[in-house]
Amino acid sequence: MTLDSPHRLTLTPIAQTRTQSRWRFEAMRAHSAPRLIFIARGQGRITVAGLTAGYGANNLIYVPARVMHGLEVGPTVFGQMLTIPAAMASDWPDAPVHLRLRDVPVQKQLAGHLDALERELSSDLPGHDRAALYQLGLLSIFFDRQMQARPAEAVDRRADTAAARLVAAYTDLIERDFRSAQGVAAYAAQLGVTPTHLTRCCKATCGKSALRLLNDRVLHEARVMLRDSKTPVNRIAAGLGFGSAAYFTRAFQSRTGLTPSAFRSREGGAPGFEARSLTNP
């Protein structure tokens, strides 16, 4: 079951508010369409493919489709997250990119692109949907030019280490198989390493154990399904590889402090993000 649409162009604000839970950004997740994250102010950490890095104001972070990531959002952080339709993913890089835009003229140029895109997404004028997609195309050209202008910082060199490559491969396997109820030992065996070595590498690259990364991904999917669907709890449990609804409920409550039903009631009644979006024809 896929709850995020790979066909929608969406611009969503990033901010911590009293009505929005931190898991909406911070929990490990992946999407079927790419994401472009712009941090306008504040600072924190982001983990992409098992590699954690700091971010600050005027940072632009691209996350390809099906790449696990989580973004820490503190009370001073504000930004925007752009969902790129899968049909336009070929205009964007194949690997994660983290750009730090230090030049004021470049920052203003980016702000202009995002403002123009938001205007079209908010408009009801004829052709606004095509105009928004054209604005997205211009933004992709801007992004490509910034990558070419600063190639040394576009890709985190730490990703070339053996530990980072192993953890990236592990997160890829998690994203593919997290519904299968496999444990860390099974993933480690597929990667040709011991669970101890895998956990050591995970802690070195992102400060989390291999089990924590796996559990975070499963828990995020459970939260999304509880929030965005009416699927019965026992079917959610079965779909995520739990042997019974009771076991799923105990595991969920131990991590969140709420039963699945209580979580659904709380999150279903809370205001959502005011995202601007359109469906790619």
Would you mind describing this structure in some detail?
This protein is an alpha+beta fold and 281 residues long. Helices cover 47% and strands 17% of the residues. The protein is built from 11 helices and 9 strands. The strands form 2 sheets. Strands 8-5-2-7-1-9 form a 6-stranded antiparallel beta sheet, covered by helices on one side. The longest helix is centred in the middle third of the chain and has 22 residues, at 128-149.
Write the layout of secondary structure elements.
Blueprint (H helix, E strand, L loop, with lengths): L7 E8 L7 H4 L8 E7 L2 E5 L2 E5 L3 E5 L5 E3 L6 E6 L13 E4 L3 H19 L5 H22 L1 H4 L7 H16 L6 H8 L3 H12 L3 H19 L4 H7 L5 H12 L3 H10 L6 E4 L2
Antiparallel strand pairs: 1-7, 1-9, 2-5, 2-7, 3-4, 3-6, 5-8
CATH architecture of the largest domain: Sandwich
Residue windows where pLDDT falls under 50 for at least 5 positions: 269-274
Q: Strand portion, in percent?
A: 15-25%
The first-to-last residue Cα distance is 22 Å
- CATH third-level topology of the largest domain: Jelly Rolls
**How many strand elements?**
9
SSE arrangement, N to C: EHEEEEEEEHHHHHHHHHHE
Please supply descriptive tags for the structure shown above.
globular, single chain, 2 domains, 281 residues, 6-stranded antiparallel beta sheet, Jelly Rolls, Arc Repressor Mutant, subunit A, 47% helix, alpha+beta, 3-stranded antiparallel beta sheet
